[in-house]
Structures are given as structure tokens and as C-alpha cells.
Amino acid sequence: MAYDLWYWPGIQGRGEFVRLALEAAGVGYRDRARSDGVEALVDDLDRRSGIRPYAPPYLVDGDFCIAQVAHILAWAGEKHGFGAGDQAGDLQLIMLQLTISDIVAEAHNVHHPIAGDLYYEDQKDAAARAAENFREQRIPKFFRYFEDALSANDGPFVLGDRWSHVDTSLFQLVEGLRYAFPQRMKAIEGDYAKLIACRDAVAELDGIKDYLASERRLAFNEDGIFRHYPELDAA
Amino acid sequence: MAYDLWYWPGIQGRGEFVRLALEAAGVGYRDRARSDGVEALVDDLDRRSGIRPYAPPYLVDGDFCIAQVAHILAWAGEKHGFGAGDQAGDLQLIMLQLTISDIVAEAHNVHHPIAGDLYYEDQKDAAARAAENFREQRIPKFFRYFEDALSANDGPFVLGDRWSHVDTSLFQLVEGLRYAFPQRMKAIEGDYAKLIACRDAVAELDGIKDYLASERRLAFNEDGIFRHYPELDAA
């Protein structure tokens, strides 16, 4: 059995947080818009009615359909064994995953502070100001928070020696910020040893190693959430 | 037994989505920063370590602590009977609640597009552009989505004749947008009859009627998420 994952082709975007956890767990999925085209995604979304996804990514299994990254991961984590395995732990993981969603949304707002459906070129001045605040205030505040969360156990993962969907998302967060803000990340990474150790441990998982070496892993680019505009970066 | 709810005093903010569901369900809670002061909130947040709330609101019950609005509501809804009562239904409610979180975050970005910790006065030009897009593109897109969700059953609530945490949140969303964008809401509300009917039905719940008439319900103001800046509104 394999899930259908529906997400915009051509970018890692929010879909990548779902892909990474499924890949790490060895859970099969078909990346439908990459195989069938973006029109198939638009058609699939349009034909749904009632309580449906607001936007991709969403995961489908027959009649079952679930959207919202943190929600997909919480559900799939419990089902496929990459959650905590107990309710108290799963609730903590969901809280962390939702906080990752918050910084991911802020990372997108940096290059689209006015509106997501306007071009970057039409909001560059606002983006420059947003980027300065994000680099100097927001990244450190979120990183301190995740560093503390990783202190709750002995690492390298949030749960200790067992990875969860929070770890694969922290990996992607670090990778995305390294791509978007290489100068800033180089300047501050040394302050967040546990976060970087978590990122490194995720990179060594068998499923992740295979995935990163495969054609399934798209490159970061300037259509996604994490975009490298040199004018938005600084140490 | 009563929960401790920790949230910034003086504003409805994100805490209001939690308050409304607890009030509708008749679940007891102490609004700690309103009784003990904002310093008590800062102290409580500071003393927590490891896996802790990134920001208020959070709900505490002894050693148990949970943050993130949609997550608090999903957990409390299952525990106190204002969820769906079955897993498939609860998963749908969580997806909707997370989408409400998304439009609430966008409503905040309208008046703080550059950064949340800068003054509105220092980002008014960007806010004016963000507001135009939010009024004309985003509100209708989200409202169509919620209108469809409310079509899944016979109303007035998402689940039909039984309210859930999604309905109290939709109530607050409509109230907040009416406060922030009165001209725009007056112009478009007629297109979203089910959403307005849901809002009206929530307003008639006994717990909500009592709450709205009490001093516990703060007024909207220009420190919260939904702010009325006349220059940001238009039909």
C-alpha cells in the first residue's frame, strides 16, 4: 500500500516536511503531482467538496484525506511508529511541530511580507526590512527554543535516541535556513550545538541518506519557501 | 478542578479562541495573567525548561502543559466533549482549526507585515498594501473554504446540530474581522450565509451568551490580533 501525496511539483516547500518523515520511516507514497502534473493536482483539489484541504500538501488513502503539515505528521507518526508512542509524548511532539510550522510561515513571509500572490520583486523593500528582523530576532529566538527542547532528553533527537517527525522537520528547517541565509547561519550555528547535532543525526538515517541521494529530493530554488536572495542575507 | 490559562492580559488575542471553547463547554479555568498580572505570566514562562510553550496561550493542569491554540482545542475538545467524538471527525476538525490559525496569522500580518516586534506606525505603508490583498483575495478565499466545510452537514455547526471548537473559533474569526474590517465585512457577508449562521448559532449558546455579557470578555482593541485601523478597511 502507498499513500498519494499531493503537493506542488518543482519545489520542496511544505510538502518536503511530509516527504522526509515518510522517507525516513520507509513508508511508501506516490508524489502524484510530480508524476501526473500540476493540472492533476488542481483537478484533484477542485473535485473535493465539503471538509477538504485548504491547500496542498495533503495525503490521501482511499477515501481518507488529511491536510496541514503538522497534522499529517502527527497522524502518520502515530500510525507508522515515528511519534512518541504515548499520548503525553505525542502531545509534546505536536506542540513542537506546530512551532516549526510557525517559523516556516515566517520564513516565507520574509520574501513575501505584503502578500503571497504578489511577486517578490514588487515587495523587495518590505522584504529587506522583514529579513533583517527575521535574521537577527526571530531565528535566534526559535533556535533557542528548539535547543532547549533537544535538552529534554540526551539527544541527538528530541525523544533521545529515537527519531520522530519533529527531528526530520528540524533537519529541513536547518537545511532551508542554510540555503536562504548562508551568512547568517554560518555566524550563529555554533550557538546551537544540539540543533545541529539533531540535523546531522537525521542526515545519517538510512532512509534519509537514500532519499537525499535520489532524484526524489528536489533542489532548493527561488519558487519555494526557503529562497536565497543574497540581498536578504547578512551575518 | 479548573485549568490555569496563561495568556497576555488586556487583549483577546489568540487566547480568546481557547476561552470561547471552554466557556461554551462550561469548563472551569483561571485566567492567570488577568488575576496575577503580566509579570506572573513572564515568570511562569521563564521557569519552564525543556519542551515548553514557545509563547502564550498555554493551558496548565498540574504538571501537564499544552500550547498552540489548535492543539489545545483538539486536546480539550476530545477530553471535554466538544470534539467530534470519533477519530475521523476529530481529524477533520483539527484540519479546519489549523486553517483558522492560518487566517488568524494572516490577519495579524496585515498590520505587522514587516515584523511583529516593530510598531504599526513604522510599517503603515506595507500594511496598507497587505490589507488590500487580505480584504480582496484572502478573506473571500478562506470564507469560501469555511462555507464549504459548513455544507458538509446540515448546519448550523460544522458537525450539524452539535457545536465543536471549530464553531467557536469561526465565531471569533467573524467577530474579529467585523471589528477590523467593518466596511469589507458588510460588503461580503451576504455571500457566506452558512458561516454567518454558524456565528449566530454560537452566539446563542448558553455559555457564550453568559460569557459575552460578562467582564471576562474583553473588548477588541488595537493591541490585539484584530485591529481596527480605518485606513486599512474598505468595502
From TrEMBL, chains A, B:
PROSITE patterns: GST_CTER, GST_NTER. Residues 1-84 form the GST N-terminal domain. It comes from the Bacteria. Residues 86-232 form the GST C-terminal domain. Pfam families: GST_C_3 (PF14497). InterPro entries: Glutathione-S-Trfase_C-like (IPR010987), Glutathione-S-Trfase_C_sf (IPR036282), Glutathione_S-Trfase_N (IPR004045), GST_C (IPR004046), GST_superfamily (IPR050213), Thioredoxin-like_sf (IPR036249). This is Glutathione S-transferase.
